[in-house]
């Protein structure tokens, strides 16, 4: 049993971890422990100091040492409730203007299997893999129920969290915050790692000590954003890739989010995570419920690497879905950086023909194939082929490409519209804008109101028609701006603040229908590169275009940050031309391929412009990736360096049975008169012996774990290395 209850104490066990909480004598649910497995009830760690200016709940009578302001309350209420002045998990307001929630334990239930969340993406698991605990808390005065959901995936060391709030009273309740998780950490010296960035430089890992007060990573941009990511790590000081304790949380949500960590007056840390309350409010009528998105939790006593591998496994095996979830992805050629908007069918055919000769599997036609779309200022929303560019239409082009032995994929941006488009002219009321105010444009486009069912219905038919009418086997689903001017013509005034979340719900419902109806299509998410790279999107799309920055050097930093939570198979990454279009940097074709291989691989350049030697190199890279893809996507991933600090980026994939490993990396700046660098491996069998394919040398696993591999001498900046290691049997040694 993963979940058990004894004397009011809840034990949630996984293979290596334990989560504990208890109902105290006042009916308050108190967090006790999240960490390595112990065999004890951890309430001996609780302390009850009499802290000045920390209030005492009424039931505590004269006991001044009982304060919710000092205790690790499992799901604390805000808005002036009950004297817990730290970051809350939930806040509500009633018709009389008050906003107190006194949440007390009411009941619990345990079920086999993993709960699902209506309308929202969530981890799925069968009855043999997971158990669910549901704890009901009640605010008796307002009859508001808070249901805490815990999904325990025993073997995977994963605990999922979600919450739903039910109004059992007879007056409306306005939810101002309904976070997915709260986690109290009364002891420890913590650092937090979050992932900041910008367009074309997403998910830069930043680790700093907690300071007293509140630290926050959040987005109020409508999507999860390039600027912050809905994932966070808490590391005990000294925690490394391979040792020490850390906790990770990833929100399964693609809209505005908030992660807050407060270090309080007693040096206790509290983490809360959920929908960003700055762009959220939800009115619950009598009998109605609100479901918060899911958060995935994991902790590791063996450093950050193990934590990441747990996240990779659960996201890949229990969140991603569809035909391509675990199967090999086609190597693609995308025309965006090769042509931008300037193409016709001849140009596309030439790129495709060259690609097919080099062994590439699929041609992806990017932006510009539809409507009046010669630049990003017009045509968006008009999903009819532009026959001035593609004479003969889509079908003829697809037939030709299929005739070359390649699949065909297409770019779409269904959520946005150009003002210069037939769609906007026909339905100006479908865009997000406040009446009597001018909307903000971004990339010269507006956003369709996906909280409006009429718009969802239209998009389902418009996109469905393209996918039904043509032989399309891949879709790149793009979204190229942040959302502001929140207002929906379809919602009454008192519901307007629900709109950001309703937008996400509308998007999810559309994606659920389309991905369900077209299971043979590989969908790749995109949001100006990696602006919506989150666990929510990975429920619908098994891969996401990681960044619009295709420069190999920068990509090592972006992919490093991305790797803390998201599986390598989820990372769309391409080899592009040099000088790189985003940075002007020149790197070798070898380096560009080594970096792009740490993901779902492709090319994004005009292959016809390569020399014959380069074409031969591409053809070898394509064959190499085809050989390695199983190991890269299903193997265990190890970060061997921190490219934000070290002079190199290095990573490895090791097969589950430790029989093979692929070690790759980039050495950044060349220097004169140095010893060659070396890299210590991780994850291989210390008792085994390994032959390196590139030079035939044999090493013991232990030597490689301790001494490491000697890296090739650098001849210029950003040179790369690739070693493929195969375990040899004892008679071969
Ligand atoms: C942003 C994407 O990230 C690019 O790859 C490309 O598809 C453009 N949009 C097209 O407008």
Can you put this structure into words, describing what you see?
This protein is an alpha+beta fold and 733 residues long. It folds into three domains: 3-318, alpha-galactosidase from lactobacil brevis (Beta-galactosidase, Chain A, domain 5, Distorted Sandwich); 332-415 and 451-481 and 521-634, Aldolase class I (TIM Barrel), CATH 3.20.20; 648-732, Immunoglobulin-like. 18% of the residues lie in helices and 31% in strands. Strands 6, 7, 8, 9, 12, 13, 15, 16, 20 and 21 form a ten-stranded antiparallel sheet that branches. An eight-stranded parallel β-barrel has the order 22-23-24-27-28-29-30-31, surrounded by five helices. Helix 6 runs parallel beside helix 7 and helix 8 (552-562) runs parallel beside helix 9. The longest helix has 23 residues, at 612-634. The model has no long low-confidence stretch (mean pLDDT 98). Bound molecules: (2R,3S,4R,5S)-2-(hydroxymethyl)piperidine-3,4,5-triol (DGJ). (2R,3S,4R,5S)-2-(hydroxymethyl)piperidine-3,4,5-triol (DGJ) binds at residues 336, 366-367, 411, 478, 480, 526, 528-529, 545, 548. Residues 336, 366-367, 411, 478, 480, 526, 528-529, 545, 548 line the site of (2R,3S,4R,5S)-2-(hydroxymethyl)piperidine-3,4,5-triol.
């Amino acid at each position: 049993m993963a979940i058990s209850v004894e004397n009011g104490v809840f034990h949630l066990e996984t293979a290596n971890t334990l989560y504990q909480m208890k109902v105290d004598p006042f009916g308050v649910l108190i967090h006790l422990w999240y960490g390595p497995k112990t065999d004890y009830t951890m309430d001996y760690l609780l302390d009850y100091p009499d802290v000045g200016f920390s209030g005492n709940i009424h039931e505590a009578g004269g006991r001044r040492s009982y304060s919710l302001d000092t205790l690790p309350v499992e799901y604390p209420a805000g808005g002036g409730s009950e004297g817990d002045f730290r970051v809350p998990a939930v806040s509500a307001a009633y018709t009389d203007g008050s906003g107190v929630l006194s949440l007390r334990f009411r009941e619990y239930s345990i079920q086999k299997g993993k709960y699902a969340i209506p309308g929202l993406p969530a981890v799925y698991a069968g009855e043999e893999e997971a158990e669910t605990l549901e704890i009901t808390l009640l605010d008796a005065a307002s009859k508001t129920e808070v249901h805490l959901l815990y999904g325990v995936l025993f073997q995977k060391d994963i605990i999922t969290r979600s919450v739903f709030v039910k109004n059992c009273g007879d007056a409306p309740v306005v939810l101002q915050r309904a976070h997915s998780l709260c986690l109290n950490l009364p002891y420890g010296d913590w650092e937090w790692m979050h992932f900041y960035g910008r367009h074309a430089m997403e998910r830069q890992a930043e680790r700093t000590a907690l300071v007293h007060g509140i630290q926050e990573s959040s987005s109020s941009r409508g999507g999860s954003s390039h600027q912050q990511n809905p994932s966070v790590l808490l590391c005990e000081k000294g925690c490394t890739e391979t040792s020490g304790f850390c906790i990770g949380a990833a929100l399964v949500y693609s809209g505005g989010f908030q992660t807050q960590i407060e270090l309080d007056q007693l040096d206790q840390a509290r983490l809360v995570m959920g929908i960003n309350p700055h762009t959220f409010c939800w009115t619950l009528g009598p009998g109605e419920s609100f479901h918060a998105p899911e958060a995935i939790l994991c902790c590791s006593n063996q450093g950050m690497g193990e934590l990441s591998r747990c996240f990779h496994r659960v996201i890949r095996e229990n969140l991603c879905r569809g035909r391509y979830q675990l199967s090999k992805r086609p190597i693609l050629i995308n025309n965006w950086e090769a042509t931008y908007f300037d193409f016709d069918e001849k140009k596309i055919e030439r790129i495709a023909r060259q690609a097919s000769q080099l062994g590439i599997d699929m041609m992806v036609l990017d932006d510009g194939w539809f409507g009046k779309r010669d630049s990003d200022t017009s045509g968006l929303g008009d999903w009819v082929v532009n026959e001035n560019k593609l004479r003969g239409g889509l079908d003829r082009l697809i037939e030709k490409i299929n005739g070359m032995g390649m699949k065909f994929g297409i770019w779409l941006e269904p959520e946005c519209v150009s003002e210069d488009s037939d769609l906007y002219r026909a339905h100006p009321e479908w865009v997000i804008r406040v009446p009597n105010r001018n909307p903000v444009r971004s990339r010269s486009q507006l956003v369709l109101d996906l909280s409006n069912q009429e718009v969802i219905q239209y998009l389902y038919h418009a996109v469905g028609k393209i996918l039904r009418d043509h032989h399309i086997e891949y879709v790149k689903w793009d979204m190229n701006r942040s959302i502001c001017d929140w207002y929906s013509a379809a919602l009454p005034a008192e519901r307007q603040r629900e709109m950001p979340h309703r937008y996400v719900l509308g998007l999810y419902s559309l994606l659920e229908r389309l991905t369900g109806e077209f299971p043979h299509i590989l969908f790749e998410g995109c949001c100006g590169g990696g602006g919506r790279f989150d666990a929510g999107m990975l429920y619908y799309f098994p891969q996401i275009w990681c960044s619009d920055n295709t420069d190999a050097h920068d990509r090592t930093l972006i992919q490093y940050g991305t790797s803390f939570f998201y599986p390598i198979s989820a990372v769309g990454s391409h080899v592009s031309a040099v000088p790189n279009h985003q940075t002007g940097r020149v790197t070798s074709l070898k380096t560009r391929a080594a970096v792009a291989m740490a993901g779902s691989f492709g090319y994004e350049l005009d292959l016809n412009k390569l020399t014959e030697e380069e074409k031969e190199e591409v053809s070898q890279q394509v064959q190499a990736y085809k050989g390695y893809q199983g190991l890269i996507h299903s193997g265990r991933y190890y970060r061997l360096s921190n490219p934000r600090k070290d002079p190199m980026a290095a990573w490895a994939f090791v097969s589950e049975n430790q029989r093979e490993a692929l070690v790759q990396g980039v050495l950044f700046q060349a220097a004169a008169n140095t010893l060659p660098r070396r890299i210590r491996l991780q994850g291989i069998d210390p008792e085994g012996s390994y032959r390196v394919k590139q030079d035939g040398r044999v090493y013991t696993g232990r030597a490689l774990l301790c001494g490491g591999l000697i890296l090739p001498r650098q001849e210029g900046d950003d040179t790369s290395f690739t070693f493929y290691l195969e375990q040899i049997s004892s008679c071969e040694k």
